[in-house]
């Protein structure tokens, strides 16, 4: 399984996933993008269900979730975008996936 979450625009320290002291959260980046390849459709759907559960756990207002599951030569790809009402929720969601 190959997975990746879109990096936020904040500068992070690789050792601890911490932001620089000067980073300001200005609600300009409220989305988190997920892309991963799974061996079959059931595994991709299970992953989407878990990601959705994680998003619902941190949302204060309903998170907008757009997803696409497509089959390819390397397996079944899940692509999803989670749009939160504020940047802090997006960051909490992303940090929870690490």
Automatic annotation (TrEMBL):
| Alphabetical list of InterPro entries matching this protein | DUF406, UPF0234-like_C
List each coiled-coil range.
Answer: none
| Assigned GO CC terms | cytosol
The domain of life for this entry's organism is Bacteria
Record Pfam families: DUF406
Q: Spell out the Gene3D superfamilies in the cross-references.
A: 3.30.70.860
Similarity annotation: Belongs to the UPF0381 family.
| Name this polypeptide is given | C4-dicarboxylate transport protein
Species the sequence originates in: Tatumella ptyseos ATCC 33301
């Amino acid at each position: 399984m190959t997975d990746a979450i879109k990096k936020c625009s904040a500068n992070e320290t690789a050792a601890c996933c911490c932001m620089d002291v000067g980073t300001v959260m200005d609600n300009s980046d409220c989305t988190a993008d997920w892309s991963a390849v799974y061996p079959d459709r059931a595994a991709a759907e299970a992953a989407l269900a878990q990601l959705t559960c994680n998003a619902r756990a941190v949302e204060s207002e309903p998170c907008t979730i757009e997803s696409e599951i497509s089959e390819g030569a390397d397996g079944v790809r899940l692509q999803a975008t989670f749009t939160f009402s504020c940047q802090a929720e997006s960051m909490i969601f992303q940090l929870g996936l690490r």
